[in-house]
Sequence to fold (884 residues):
Amino acid sequence: MPTAKTLTDGSVAFVARSARAAARRLAQLSADTRNKVLLAAAAAIEENSREILAANNRDCQSAKEAVASGQMSPAMFARLQISERGIAQMAKQVREVAALPDPLGRLLEATELDEGLILHKETCPLGVIGIIFEARPEVVPQVASLALKSGNAVVLKGGSEAANSNEALVSVWRDCLRRYPDVPEDSLSLLQTRADVLELLSLDRDVDLIIPRGSRALVEFVAKNSRIPVLGHGEGICHVYVDLAADIQKAVAVVYDAKVQGPAICNAAETLLVHEDIAAHFLPLVAAKLKQAGVEIRGCPTTVSLLSKEEIVPATEEDWATEYSDLILSVKVVPSIEKAIGHINQYGSRHTESIVTEDASAAAQFMNEVDAAGVYQNASTRFADGYRYGFGAELGVSNSKLHARGPMGIEGLTTYKFKLYGNGHIVADYVTGAKHFKHRKL
Amino acid sequence: MPTAKTLTDGSVAFVARSARAAARRLAQLSADTRNKVLLAAAAAIEENSREILAANNRDCQSAKEAVASGQMSPAMFARLQISERGIAQMAKQVREVAALPDPLGRLLEATELDEGLILHKETCPLGVIGIIFEARPEVVPQVASLALKSGNAVVLKGGSEAANSNEALVSVWRDCLRRYPDVPEDSLSLLQTRADVLELLSLDRDVDLIIPRGSRALVEFVAKNSRIPVLGHGEGICHVYVDLAADIQKAVAVVYDAKVQGPAICNAAETLLVHEDIAAHFLPLVAAKLKQAGVEIRGCPTTVSLLSKEEIVPATEEDWATEYSDLILSVKVVPSIEKAIGHINQYGSRHTESIVTEDASAAAQFMNEVDAAGVYQNASTRFADGYRYGFGAELGVSNSKLHARGPMGIEGLTTYKFKLYGNGHIVADYVTGAKHFKHRKL
Fold:
């Protein structure tokens, strides 16, 4: 139990405790009510666009100075800015979440344990979710809508560079909730400081899950300091393995897309593995194509021997363990599929791994033995994304093997409970043998 | 990467790394092979019963002295002993696990992302499981069989009081595995010391999940020191709420069973909540029944006023937060179902909670608003158990909301991966608009 002191109005413990109380009420709302409020929130974002843009403008003014003095990257500045079109996009995404199927109360299993004793395994909300993110203010309506749809309360902490924008968006959202007497305003709260984050990470009684979205440093800081389960991913070292039975044309296209189409994204490839029987033919072709996009190639000794000097620099041991997030690709020639799998399981981050091959049994071996959230045959690693997987909305990517693995949809915000319906049933009857379990799946 | 030093033969890091290698091979075995080996292991336990019983006898000799000097409880001694019948029971349980449906390669979802681009979400093993347990040597074949069935390697650490028994069982199991060239012996390993446990808990690269089975102190020690996800449960404070619309006869039976049928088990009830409109009628009846079993009742002021002085002592604030694991029951009279739910959400351990009522809407409210792995209507909390739920075999109970909640069956040892089958598909085609996603559920 927190002391009276820590529960003073406005403290993080108070915010989390209020979120817990809100979550209990949210869990009772019908799908209709949740969807109705989501549609109202989408409209509220549009109706209050002037206030939101003005707040964002204040953030951008300070950010401009930070960019000028070199304290903020132009890329981060770009992510911070909200346009008129950005407002429309936010509202559209909230409406898309409203249109998703209801994730709650789904009957996962039903068993007749005995006459009149029925066990249901049913989805329900997790409770309170803490989300810690950087820059992009559009995360606010995105996660607020996913949380409301799934009956969860959420405590947010955004980056200080977007403080005004985040506050405006949270306040529009809460104003909207206030119009519905059944819907608790504390379903969405915003924390202010970095010290608040540390306190939040300790409140394991009132917060059920932490999702960090941002840089690797942020994710690692959260994972290290949290007493609450964390879902996120620190790094993405993805590989493409070109098997000896590869279609060369497909292999060139897949490697090029996996490296070049979005090099800064976690599902981009960092290392290319090539079977030695195909390397002399394949490597010059792919190298020429990658060169067009300005990709730097760092190769193992065999790769170096197969390419011209202008095309390649030697790779070091460190290269195999590096996420470049840039137009750099390390390349290794391997003598067998087993060596390729071994390399991936040693250096990969269990994110997404692809084999290019026309040999179904090689593909099956690769896809079973490689330990990763996504294992692909003849497809670019860049497909690892909630939208591309058809989840409707992506909450983030998890590199945990527990709960949610890989791109997380709204299901990542649900758990289940067992509901047992009896008629005065007692265990003693089954221990004495007076009654016997049926265990019939319904 | 661990250094060469930590990977010396016999070190915990070496054991874990060997388990990881074994897990990769286990993931490739067909269900037929896994089941064949399980049946052979069951037979091996029977064939080696003399060695196992002799080893157990050595443990029991030392334990007898510990009991005589008061260092071991008679209950723990009882759990340590293996009988001829215990051997048969172990073999029977291993055969039951062999008979379970295959938990691997289950297709959870299939989506046609686009023409020729098919996404499968498929169950697969977690990898390496660390299991830390006390006393009961029968845990060895139980978890070894569940792990093998689900394609996982396991690293065990049992209590020192059962060291000889555990070693005999592990060595029978490994001898059996050695007869199959495809099946790695390192699928099952045994650690020796308490220091080994601490080291194991730090090996997050080679161990995917830790399951502690034993006292609350053990579970809390593991949770506090682990860098690896932990599934277990520290305590069980379960409640029965007798609603104003309760059938009195059912209520007496359920409360009696929940408290008396197995008071030391985590799913036993610790607190009885009674609606005030029914208390004067119900409490004397249930108190009389509980008295027959020697249950001590600790009551709130209203309860005290309704029962005779011999039947009751006043409860303190601490009582509401105490797991007695004994024939003691705290009793509180509440003015409403909301107050009952509030009490449970404040003091409960989110394990198993039961309402006794004939009112379906009261039951629905209770079962939705109470935050627990199991929520029951008109049934004893003692039903919260993997065997009673029909899981075939129980791995433990989880009080986590993530991954596995409540009694955990063999599914708790699986995760899933996304398998994407393409034909040279690249993301650029979808970004440029040359192609469009179909997202058709198959």
